[in-house]
């Protein structure tokens, strides 16, 4: 039975916490539920979440994509494309930058009908010995962002889908790629990656820092879909002074990583 206070107002069944983000509620449906707002369509179940806009632009310029639908936010259109590869069809889309937007777009793509995801993106490295382009496969992520706390119980880490990680490993080993599997640090605040925070994350075993992985993993766990991610080492945040390492070209690295992600995704 619903509970009311002395003024007749509804009382929540959620226990109030000192910090609001810890007030987890797994109730389904939410007030705005993706499956009610986004109608299911005929769409491939495999999807590559690609952070590399120039790779998507090249696919468009080469005539290799077909527009499926435009998702929309206040930023404008977020197109979903169909691409054929290895005699199979897959969805390709850019998720934006940052956990809230990326998670919201992932929710809508799941509601449309996709359920197997591999993402490809870049990350800062926490070890200066890790070269630009070195491939990182995160099997877990430190949840130093806000979005994941609305999908799974509060906790320090969340894991990637084991099935997705294994699919990535098979492809990288097939192509004889050097890679490292480990933990990534997901944060909302790129300008608050302080030296002490970096030291703490290194002590926890983090290899990299980025802005979306833990949210992706939490959404996929909540919605019961497969999600794993490929990252390449980019800028270096391991020292007190940031090194952008922009003198090293990423073009070939990013394109190769996309096709590895596509192959791994279609292998699921």
Automatic annotation (TrEMBL):
Q: What EC designation does it have?
A: 2.4.2.3
User: Keywords of this protein's UniProt record, alphabetized?
Assistant: Glycosyltransferase, Transferase
Top-rank taxon, per record: Bacteria
Q: Name one GO molecular function term.
A: purine-nucleoside phosphorylase activity
Question: Does Glycosyltransferase appear among the keywords?
Answer: yes
Report which reactions are catalysed by this protein: uridine + phosphate = alpha-D-ribose 1-phosphate + uracil
Boundaries of every Nucleoside phosphorylase domain copy:
46-235
Q: Which GO terms of type biological process are on file? A: purine nucleoside catabolic process
> May I have one GO cellular component term?
cytosol
Q: Which InterPro entries match?
A: Nucleoside_phosphorylase_d (IPR000845), Nucleoside_phosphorylase_sf (IPR035994)
Presence of the UniProt keyword Lyase in the record: no
Name of the protein: Uridine phosphorylase
Organism of origin is: Clostridium oryzae
């Amino acid at each position: 039975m619903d509970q009311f206070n002395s003024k007749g107002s509804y009382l929540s069944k959620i226990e109030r916490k000192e910090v609001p983000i810890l007030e987890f509620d797994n109730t389904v449906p939410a007030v705005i539920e993706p499956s009610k707002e986004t109608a299911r369509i005929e769409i491939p179940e495999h999807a590559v979440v690609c952070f590399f806009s120039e790779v998507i632009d090249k696919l468009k310029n080469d005539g290799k994509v077909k527009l499926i639908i435009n998702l929309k936010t206040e930023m404008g259109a977020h197109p979903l494309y169909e691409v054929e590869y290895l005699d199979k069809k897959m969805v390709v889309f850019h998720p934006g930058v940052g956990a809230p937007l990326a998670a919201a777009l992932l929710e809508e793509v799941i509601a449309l009908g996709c359920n197997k995801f591999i993402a490809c993106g870049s990350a800062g490295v926490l070890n200066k010995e890790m070269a630009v382009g070195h491939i990182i496969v995160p099997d877990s992520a430190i949840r130093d962002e806000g979005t994941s706390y609305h999908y799974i119980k509060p906790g320090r880490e969340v894991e990637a889908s084991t099935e997705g990680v294994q699919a990535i490993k098979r492809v990288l080993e097939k192509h004889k790629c050097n890679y490292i599997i480990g933990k990534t640090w997901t944060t909302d605040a790129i300008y608050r990656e302080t030296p002490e925070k970096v030291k703490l994350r290194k002590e926890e075993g983090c290899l990299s820092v980025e802005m979306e992985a833990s949210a992706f993993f939490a959404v996929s766990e909540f919605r019961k879909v497969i999600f794993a991610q490929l990252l390449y080492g980019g800028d270096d945040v391991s020292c007190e002074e940031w090194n952008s390492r922009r003198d090293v070209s990423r073009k070939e690295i990013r394109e190769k990583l996309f096709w590895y992600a596509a192959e791994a995704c279609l292998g699921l």
